Amino acid sequence: MPAEPSSPPVANSLSESVREGLARILDAGDLRMPMLPEVARQLLSEEFREKATAKTLSELIHRDQMLAGQVLRVSNSAAFNPGSPIVSLQQAVVRMGLERIRELALAAALESGAFQVPGAKDLVLKLWMHSAAAGAFAKEVARARRANVEAAFLCGLFHDLGKPVVITALFEFERKSGKRCAPEDWTAALREFHVSAGLKLAERWALPESTREAIASHHLVESGAAAGEGALTAALASALSHWALEEGEDPAAREALLRNPLWPKLDLYPADAEIVLGKRADALRFAEAFS
Amino acid sequence: MNSENFDVIVVGSGPAGQKAAIQAAKAGKRAAVIEKGRGAGGACVHYGTIPSKTLRETTLAWSSFRRRTSATVGLKLPENTKVAALMAHLDTVVRAHEKYIADQLTRNGIAFVQGVARLTSPHDFEIQCLDGSKRKLRGEIVVLAPGSRPRTPPEIPVDHEHILDSDSILSLIYLPASMAVLGSGVIACEYASIFAALGVKVSLIDKSPLPLGFLDPEISRRFQHGFEALGGEFMGGRKIARVEFDGLEVAVDLEGGEKVRVEKMLCAQGRVACLDGLNLEAAGLSSKDRYIAVNANYQTAVPHIYAAGDVIGPPALAASSMEQGRRAVCHALSLSPGGNGELVPIGIYALPEVASVGLSEQDALKRFGACMVGRAKFAELARGHIAGITDGLLKMVADEAGRKLLGIQIVGEGAADLISVGQMGLISGCDVDLFIEHTFNFPTLVEAYRVAAFDLVEQRINKFAQAAAGT
Is B408 part of a structural domain of the chain? Predict the structure, then answer.
């Protein structure tokens, strides 16, 4: 059974056969992404079709990183001739209009609807909740810094984009090889491949540069390496998301989070950090929409 | 924890703080600057003057190029142009300025302390650093120059995402299709005109009947005309009933039923002094007022504590703040500051640019009951035609006799630089004839002074002739 989605760096224990098999599948580049079933269901429902507004559609798209990515990819495609890059979901909705985005989102949902991740429902759900809460917290971090909120949301939401890709690839590997991967292989595979898989997908979807940088570097900041604002924001948002979802009631965890060295790196003072932590309920509400 | 002792402690490293600290150091005093931000310079460098002027320069270059080539090339900025790309050299400019200020502080032996300052007594500060640690500083003389931040009226739900203030507006990563700008002051008019020049559909909304309402109405109307020529719309005399982001657009409902729907909104309804957390009461000062009260020497009610810059209220201009900081320390150290420092020019870096120094026509009428005004339209200047700047105007205000120079107002490209000629004239107490009796480079926009002076001389002659005919 798969492990927790965001495992801390530990010694690599991925067996060679799994590594080779996964690399082959991921290199092939034609993996299809899982879609959160609830989103697909809502998009397809008659009720949603009748009552969809710009607001409900925008909220729905924001909830799902896969759908969000596909909306960005398709809205940037030659078919929609955007003229110049669409760099945020809000911009996509405003630019392309409610109906077009709704159709696009529906198409994206239908396209991905056939993809399930059997046996990993809980893991995928957890992953999405983590990403959603990270997206919500990234917005608050950006707000506190007077930085761009839309770009920060994408950095938070997509920073672990590669993880569902790796999960899908692992299932594909198990199906093809007829072997079951050990739990430690799941953990190690997620750790080893999620950045490269996420980057590959981000490039394919033409995600904004700051989002790609967040995917590429959000783990590097843990080792003190130089990183851009997007990566720093994503890394802090990820820590905030873990705290909110897993440790929010623990005063010691809260104290430890307030001492996180990413705050000063982002020029945020303890008082700013308190304000961001105060948004926990909002971030949880946003994430729990998936549960 | 022991205190670090200084002769002069300055809170804030913006224009007022920098010059206060440098004046103290030049006088041989041990000075420290406490700054919340990572780099020196304050809001002026990071959110105010420098970034907005950088965006303006890019916009000006773009609009000038478009204007000068309109006959041969049809140019339009692509939709969704990234603001960040337009501000490509912003980082370079900000870093260069930060470094220049930091070098200046270092060169003068001034300690730079990053943190949030809190007074614990009339002489003592507790500093909270970014990592949460604390430091204590003690100063014999204190200069408070913490600057200001955007004012957010309670009825405007600024979220820094759809509804922005003058700090977060710089975080935009793409040009919106439409924007409402609330306010009609300097910041509102600067950003409104810059975004209009970039092709954004801008609605400038305010209760005032004219933009830049504190200026000569003729100049304000000229600015409005220029702004509307860029495609902007000034909606004066309007009151906001409700503002909301409805999930797709920012909905602005005005009293009387008018509705404006835009992609983004900028709330630019003034700035407030950064007094939060300073704990002024510990020093015997009140934080209940909007600004810190000072006398003509920038001294507060506590003799060794001075205040300068935005924190003491209008004019809250970078140039005047610098002078206030310098003068405050001169007074504290019993040094002569030189000059009277009262003649402060105003520069508004909008499109078109606006500048003023000395008395306006209205000021002169109010003070003396009569005045004479000479005008020069840039359309009458060779340089105006060459550069494609024909919509400018220079107003020269003189006494009733049309001789003594009292003030200059300019609207048009280069106004903030051009005004310095008039400022020097005012400082020297010159007659308007000076601008006729001396030679200026040709062709230049400075010729406007000569044209306006000739206008005054002509009026003077006519007035004399009429008076002679009447007798």
Answer: yes
Domain that residue B21 falls in: 4-48+88-150+272-332
Q: What is the CATH number of the domain that holds B179?
A: 3.50.50.60
d(CA B157, CA B235): 21
Cα B168 to chain centroid distance, Å, stands at 18
Q: How far is B451 from chain A (nearest CA, A)?
A: 47
In A, minimum Cα distance to B249 occurs at: A94
State how many domains chain B has. Answer: 3
Mean pLDDT computed over B114-128: 97
Q: Identify whether residues B24 and B131 lie together within a single domain.
A: yes
Between β-strands B178-182 and B201-205, what pairing exists: parallel, antiparallel or unpaired? parallel
Distance CA B431, CA B345 (A): 19
Q: Please indicate, yes or no, whether residues B208 and B113 belong to a single structural domain of this protein.
A: no
B266 interfaces chain A, CB cutoff of 8 Å: no
Residues B19 and B97 in one domain: yes
Characterize B286-300 residue by residue with b for buried, 16 or more Cβ atoms within 10 angstroms of its Cβ, and e for exposed. eeeeebbebeeebbb
Clarify whether residues B280 and B325 are in a common domain.
yes
- Residue at B385 is within a domain: yes
Q: Evaluate if residue B439 carries a pLDDT over 50.
A: yes
More confident residue, A112 or B237: B237
B135/B282 same-domain check: yes
Between B236 and A35, the higher pLDDT residue: B236
Structural domain includes residue B366 = yes
What single-letter DSSP state applies at residue B244? E
Is B171 touching A (CB cutoff 8 A)? yes
| pLDDT tier, A193 (very low <50, low <70, confident <90, very high otherwise) | very high
pTM to 2 decimal places: 0.85
B305 shares its domain with B222 = no
For position A4, what pLDDT does the model report?
A: 43
Q: Is the pLDDT of residue B149 over 50?
A: yes
ipTM of the complex: 0.83
Q: What is the DSSP string of A197-211?
A: HHHHHHHHTT--HHH
Lowest mean pLDDT among A40-49, A88-97, A204-213, B237-246: A40-49
